[in-house]
Amino acid sequence: MNYSDKHKIVVLTPPRQATRTLGSIFQKLGVVNDFEHAFTHRLGIPSDKEDYTIISSIRNPYNRYLSIYKWQSIFTLENLHETAIGHLRDYQTLIDIDGEYGIDYWIDTENIKNDLMNIPVINQNLEIIQSDIDELDTFNSYKNEGRTVGKITQEIADQIYDEFKFVFDKFGYGRDSWK
């Protein structure tokens, strides 16, 4: 889990939900984890940090599916659909964490800059991360990936929607947002 004792924040970044982008920003603010990795996908709240501000990234399930599918296709061509769906199941972990602790700030990858700017620790430390924030004006690959990769069929869209309807409902993603 990614956290900063100085800022009293925990940052959750599931796979294919802007981990590298958010990692580069939050690491400049001193966010670390208990592993050797620079930023981790592990989801949970460390036992001594339950009172910290919790920040999590979120992504439209269709766009995330396509990103996972595309990434996994680099390594294998087998079971890509099942692998992508399997990775989406960590949405439930996020919802469980939200129910137990309350996620204070959600960063939607499609609105990454605006959502970041709503977080006090970001605004209080702009002098450190301003260049990273400015880059988000010109480059946000998370916005259109779902419309450019084009591997979703109606059948796959229905499966994703049916299984992850709770994400669509909570974050206002449209059922046809894959088109």
Description of the structure:
The chain has 179 residues and is of the alpha/beta class. It has a single domain (2-171), classed as Rossmann fold. The chain is built from 10 helices and 4 strands; from the N terminus they run E-E-H-E-H-H-H-E-H-H-H-H-H-H. It has helices at residues 19-27, 61-72, 80-88, 91-100, 112-117, 120-123, 126-138, 145-149, 154-163, 165-171, and strands spanning 2-4, 9-12, 53-58, 105-108. The protein has a 4-stranded mixed β-sheet. Helix 1 (19-27) links the parallel strand 2 (9-12) and strand 3 (53-58).
Unreliable stretches (pLDDT < 50, length at least 5) are none
First-to-last CA distance: 34 Å
SSE string, helices as H and strands as E? EEHEHHHEHHHHHH
* Number of domains as seen in the coordinates: 1
Radius of gyration: 16 Å
At CATH level 3, the topology is Rossmann fold
Write down the overall geometry: globular
Helix count equals: 10
Largest sheet: 4 strands, mixed
Strand order of the largest sheet: 1-2-3-4
Q: What's a concise summary of this model?
A:
The protein contains ten helices and four strands; from the N terminus they run E-E-H-E-H-H-H-E-H-H-H-H-H-H. By secondary structure, it is α/β, with parallel strands linked by helices.
Helix and strand topology:
Elements: E1 2-4, E2 9-12, H1 19-27, E3 53-58, H2 61-72, H3 80-88, H4 91-100, E4 105-108, H5 112-117, H6 120-123, H7 126-138, H8 145-149, H9 154-163, H10 165-171
Parallel strand pairs: 2-3, 3-4
Antiparallel strand pairs: 1-2
